[in-house]
Amino acid sequence: MLFQKKIEPRCAYCERGTQLDEEKILCAKKGVVSPAGSCRAFKYDPLKRVPPLPKAPDFSGLKDEDFKL
Q: Which residues have C-beta within 8 Å of that of residue 16, sequence separation ≥ 6?
């Protein structure tokens, strides 16, 4: 689910943070912080969160007979 009630607080997807580069977030409350950090002022912004890519399916266990009608 993308919009969960209990989300782990991270500065990478906080409403108050602006991404400077891969390893730095500019926080309105704390200044320059790491993306993995968090504070009590965390406010979730779902548009900043990038969900993980889905796992590729494993077709190694299938045989040619599985595809015949």
A: 27, 28, 29, 41, 42, 43
Instruction: Please give the Cα distance from 22 to 37 (Å, whole number).
Output: 13
The stretches of the chain forming alpha helices (DSSP H) are: none
| pLDDT 10s digits, 10-42 | 898 899 999 999 899 999 999 999 999 888 988
Place of tokens 């599985």: 66
Domain boundaries, the chain: 7-46
Tokens for 56, please give them.
Answer: 């590729």
